[in-house]
Amino acid sequence: MNGFNHKRGGCWAVAALLLLMANCTENPFGGESDISTKTTVSGRVILLNSSSSEGVYVWLEGLNVGVFTGPNGDFQLHLPSPSSQPGGGFTGSANLYFYMANFQPDSTRLVLRSGEFLYSQGELNENGELLHPRTLTKLLTVSTALRPSAIPTSYDSTLETIVTLQVLALQVELLAYGAGSNFLTLAEVQKINTAEAWVGSLYSGFLQIDTTFFSGTYVFTTSYLLDPYFLTPGDYLVMPYIWVKQEHLPRGLIHSLGAAYEKFDLNYVNIPFQREGGRLTVTAD
Prior knowledge:
Helix content: 10-25%
Number of domains: 2
Number of helices: 2
CATH topology of the largest domain: Immunoglobulin-like
Number of strands: 18
């Protein structure tokens, strides 16, 4: 009789242990998502009046981390480890900005605790995804035509740029460099489709001009004198140097891209800006 009770007691002990192990696989604090790391936020940005939503800069103020959207406007931003954040793990709210230089920027406020996002709060769902796509409205269209558009490396004459600005908003404030009545006399040239990192500048006037443009179309023609062998063979993008002034845009966002806001800087090429045209081909002699 005693042996029978001992075996039955052992069976009950094993069953209790299995039940305890099963219960331990569940999170006692409210579901599996609560014990996962919440250091990622994702979503989508849509550029209105544009054929592509790629290249929008998504930047988290306070923690100074950013990422660019992919071809469909999708993004996924990762936080640094809590130990490398301010205070050993940021707690509080921070603005997430969406920036393309010639579009109206947008932002949303996110909440963090101990270096992680609080999911299912504000604009985030339980998976850390924005509830709705963010849409940016275009303020300005910039189109550049070149004459000539192809030159040999020994070319020692003028390169003419015809820049058309179409202001789509009621008004925009633009900062550029000019001379006399010409608002655009400074351009940057970047070599593309190559591993070679090369950026240079062209200028025929270097006076900083801050002007408000109202809705409409404006055309500026500038001639630059090129030195022979200034450019090696390859394809280049000629970009008129224009800042679209954004009153409520944090300076830290621009600085995070390595550029100096509202002053001449070769790192201006890092600023996301949707342009049309401006392609120059340089061939060997």
